[in-house]
Amino acid sequence: MSNAILIAGTTSDAGKSVVTAGICRWLVRRGVKVAPFKAQNMSLNSMVTADGAEIGRAQVMQAQAARVEPEAAMNPVLLKPGADGRSQVVLLGRPVAEVGALDYRERKPYLLERSLECLADLRRRFDVVVCEGAGSPAEINLRDRDIANMGLARAADLPVLVVGDIDRGGVFAAMYGTLALLEAADQALVAGWLVNKFRGDARLLKPGLDMLHELTGRPVLGTLPMLADLWLDAEDSLDLSTAVTRSGTVGPYGEDVLRVAVLRLPRLSNFTDLDALAQEPGVLVRWATRPEELADADLVVLPGTRATVADLAWLRERGLERPLLARAAEGRPVLGVCGGYQMLSRRITDAVESGAGAVDGLGLLPVEVEFAVEKTLGRPVGEAYGERVEGYEIHHGIARVDGGEPFLDGCRVGAVWGTTWHGALENDGFRRAFLREVAAVAGRRFVPAPDTSFAAAREERLDRLGDLIEEHADTDALWRLIEGGAPAGLPFVPPGAPAPRAVEGEEL
């Protein structure tokens, strides 16, 4: 039994992460012990596992879909881009280097070995491993040292299912072109297509699907309809826009809508911290990059960032410092999380991340921040507003508090709160208590819904992904791929040459 499959995509954001999660949920509901895997992930959205390893948040979400505990082996290489064109390399959950693109390229053979070891380990311990690719497998300028797409598939003999986003247009050209650009040995592993984000009548699509099968010799294993409002843990902020509004359904409890503005920092990280607020009935969450977008907000959030000093400079350049200081002076709520909390401090001393030395913070909290070489990774537990709070922390900056009221691991002064803990708002009791406090300070007649459960909402969304695969994909063909690998004799499609007819007898 092959017991593994690679989900690749014609582009970034084609839907690889959600398809991988959907397959994991479909399999686990069939009684299969399944694990997700992504060899290399470039993301500023990460989380800490129970044993203190940092991995991509998308793989944590996929592990939740598979109903298993996330672990470092599921995402052995994590790249976290910084402000200077360099990225922090996190290997098996621990930072090991800061590199540029060319430096990183030289490390790839070693990182492929480590990734293959992790994948082999997962394949021994699980019935099935569902692997996710990165970007596109047809990035031919990077193919010679690829560790996440066809390089991984070739080394581990994985059948490949390619996902294409039809909503952005050109999906047939993208699928055919992806295959045509691959060398013969890579093409031999591409076993099928999956159309994602389809709107409309599927009957109109069928002639194109049939032609794609004929042109490539590979069948389409399903057409997945567009699903709105999933809000599942994305890898990066490609899908975020300053025009995007996220809002929970307004229910009978909140008489007023509570308006939250979140600064969309250039190196925004762990933006999923706000998802729990966005699904709360009566709460409106908006991204903001201009001073006027803060004017009517009941709460302004400074989120996490991979580059605190650089993003603080951006904040000042955009004219956002003055309205933040005015809000604090007027007693209007502001919340800083991790890097955002560091910005609220009196002073930041950073010889590690930016090398800027001492920089004045916004001065809204009695805190001094000094960056340490060793990254703090943890899963802290505490209490606030009489409620138990679980979170996770990922930071180099060490905040030393000298005054104010305690707030989780940070502090509060007036209507300004700060903490290094990510994920705190996912705790239902704490979130409701915090929103009640914000509403009272903001003068809103807002009462949080007493039965809102973020964990239940997440489970419901993961079940929707499992349903998506079960109802709209050819699961029998998908299982044959997982069990037996890519069929032998799949035709080679040379670039620019007449396309071959589908090989008879080779349908999945």
TrEMBL record:
Signal peptide: none annotated. It comes from the Bacteria. The active site is at C338, H422. GO terms for molecular function: ABC-type vitamin B12 transporter activity; catalytic activity. Pathway: Cofactor biosynthesis; adenosylcobalamin biosynthesis. The keyword Aminoacyl-tRNA synthetase does not apply. Keywords: Cobalamin biosynthesis, Glutamine amidotransferase. Residues 5-230 form the CobQ/CobB/MinD/ParA nucleotide binding domain. GO terms for biological process: cobalamin biosynthetic process. InterPro entries: Class_I_gatase-like, CobQ/CobB/MinD/ParA_Nub-bd_dom, CobQ_GATase1, CobQ_N, CobQ_synth, GATase_3, P-loop_NTPase. Residues 259-429 form the CobB/CobQ-like glutamine amidotransferase domain. Transmembrane segments: none annotated. The keyword rRNA processing does not apply. Pfam families: CbiA, GATase_3. PANTHER family: COBYRIC ACID SYNTHASE, DETHIOBIOTIN SYNTHETASE. Belongs to the CobB/CobQ family. CobQ subfamily. Catalyzes amidations at positions B, D, E, and G on adenosylcobyrinic A,C-diamide. NH(2) groups are provided by glutamine, and one molecule of ATP is hydrogenolyzed for each amidation. This is Cobyric acid synthase.
